[in-house]
Each structure stands twice: as structure tokens, then as C-alpha cells.
Amino acid sequence: MKKIILGIILTAFFVGCYYDKSQLLTPVTPPPTASNTFTVTYAISSATITVGTTGNTGTPVIVNTAGGSVTYKLVNAPTGVTVDTSGIVSWAATVVVGTYNFSVIATNIKSLYDTSNFLLQVDAIGAAVVAPSGYSYSPASTTISNGTAGSSLAPLINTGGGTITYSLTSPPAGVTINSSTGVISWASTVAAGTYTINAKATNSAGNATTTYSLTITAGVYTVSFKNDILPVISSQCATCHQSTHPTWTQWSTIYTAATSIYGKLAPVGNMPKGSTLAAVPTSEVSSGLFRDLFYLWITQGKKNN
Ligand code: HEC
Fold it and tell me: CB of 100 within 8 A of CB of 77?
């Protein structure tokens, strides 16, 4: 009799533990942390002019999630080059013949700053066209996740006084250059990898070359409940578990039991008893383990997709 009572108490204890566990172990994905973005981008970052000519860069594109005013400061600019309160950089007729590399530092009220580099070439009147020089990009590299199209900023260049045509030497598929502005663009279809892009600027007197580095990172696979999770659980688990559990043949019951299922999946757990889980594509989870794919599904919000 004592044994029977003890048995009932122990059974109640274990049943209690099981239900508690399934309640407690729901994983929580932390919310993304908010941070301010501040970028100042100029469509024009270089110019070649004849002495005595005025000009300007136009208004920059400002992304300033913190709001408030933006201040601009010139660094290493020659006499006659100024920046106004809206960020327009201008050169007066008085700038003397020479090649000038200078920067504008823009700062917002949160003390975030962004630096833009410029190249101004002032040629003497009647100077002959010479080969281009000082061809570069600033920044000269981009890292972006796959599936995202994008482009570089306009290059810095001393045109040598001639009209420039830009081109790329054997670019990766999906990467192009604007032949008149020198802006390099990539399509959303460019495969993951790191690419060194070889660019060339040509005028009537010669050419200059430079490189741009593009890194496309592999994105995270979006787990499909219908295609990745349900077929495995319903064929390899529900068979044994249909009497002890609400059937694991639908999203709602697998959703509820997700944490205990994860805990029991091989190779850490001992399920499925009597059979093995097939490897999943390593492009989905690098380990190739169904267990890790199931965990990814949990972290992605256990979607019914
Ligand atoms: C051949 C039958 C069999 C198969 C197939 C099987 N299980 Fe089990 N499972 C059991 C038995 C028996 C137990 C209780 C004893 C134990 O834990 O080893 C159990 C226990 C469990 C438990 C813990 C207790 C409970 O009932 O919730 C979980 C979770 C579980 N299995 C998940 C799975 C998952 C997920 C699969 C598929 C990947 C699976 N099982 C496949 C027989 C099976």
C-alpha cells in the first residue's frame, strides 16, 4: 500500500515537473537596441576647374535620426574654399592653381560626426589635358548582407582637364559603374563573397585605376514551418507521441511544445528513438543539424510559415 501511495506521489511530482518545464522554457528574443544614425553624403566629391572659375558641391544628403542642427567644419581647405551652414562647399575665383585634398567634418547635437573627403584641381588657363590622377573612393569599401542592392559614393579624381569615362575591368556579375559619374552599383543578386572591383578612369590623355572592396555577407536563412519543421516532426516524432501528447502534426501543438521538443532532439537529446534525423542543408544552418534548424525556427518567432 505504501508503495502505491509513494508511486502516486512520485507520478504527481513528475507530471508537475513536466508541465512546469514546458511553461518556463519559452525562449525570449531580446528587442533590437536603438541607436542613432548620422551620415552626410555629397553627390560631388571632386572637381577640376580652370583658375578663376567658381563652383560648389550642392547640398549634401543628411541622415540624422537624432534630429537637431548640424554643423560643418573644413579641414585642410585652401584659401577661397568655404562651407556654409547647410553644408554646401564652394570655391571662389581666387583659389590659386594647385591640387587640393581637403575634408568637411559634419557634427550633430549628439556629437556624432561624419567626414567627407574632397579633391579640387585648379588648372592654369590654357593648360593641356593630362592623364587623370588621384582616382579613389572614400569610403573605398562596403560590407552589406546579401539580397541588398547598393552603390558607392562618387569618386575623388583629378580629371586632368579632360572628360572622364569610367569602366570596370572584369567585374563580378551584377556589379556595374556609371560611365560618367564613376558611381559603382551592385544588384541584390550578387552572391555572398568578398570582391575587389577594379575601376578605370580614362580621358583623352591617359587613364588612372583604383580598387573598391565589396563584401556581401550571407544572410540568415528563414526557416519554413511547412517545409522544414512539420514534415520531420510529424513523420519522425508524432508516430510515437500521439497518445501521450496532443498530436504533433500541426503548428499549434508543436508551437506549444517547442522548448521541450528542442531539449530532446538528437544529438543533445535522445529523440527520435529508434531512428535518426537526416542532415539539413548547411546553407540553412552551418552545422547541418535539424536541432539547430529547429532552434533557429524558435528564435525567428516560431512562425506558421
Ligand atoms: C520510437 C518511439 C519514439 C519516437 C520516434 C520519438 N519518441 Fe520521444 N519519447 C519516446 C519515449 C518512450 C519517451 C519517454 C522516455 C524517454 O524520455 O526516453 C519519449 C520522451 C520524449 C520527450 C520528453 C517527455 C515527453 O513526453 O514530452 C520529448 C520532448 C520527446 N520524446 C520528443 C520527441 C521528438 C521531438 C521526437 C522526434 C524527433 C521523438 N520524441 C520521437 C518515444 C519516442
Answer: yes
Query: What are the tens digits of pLDDT across the range 33-81?
Result: 457 889 999 988 999 999 998 999 999 999 999 889 999 999 999 999 9
User: Do both 41 and 58 map to the same domain?
Assistant: yes
Q: Give the pLDDT confidence score for residue 30 in this predicted structure.
A: 47
Ligand 1 site: residues with CB under 6 angstroms? 236-237, 239-241, 244, 260-261, 264-265, 270-274
- Find out whether 98 and 122 touch, Cβ atoms under 8 Å: yes
Picking from 126, 142, 164, the residue at the C-terminal end of a domain is: 126
Beta strands 55-56 and 89-91, pairing class: antiparallel
Same domain, 133 and 148: yes
Ligand 1 closest atom vs CA 232: 38
Structural domain that includes position 228: 222-305
User: What confidence category does residue 305 fall into, taking pLDDT thresholds of 50, 70 and 90?
Assistant: very high
Q: Into how many domains does the chain fold?
A: 3
**Residue 106, pLDDT above cutoff 60:** yes
Exposure class string for 263-294: b at 16+ Cβ within 10 A, else e: ebbeeeeebbeeeebeebeeebbeeebbbbbb
Q: Are residues 46 and 105 in the same domain?
A: yes
Say whether pLDDT at 294 is over 70: yes
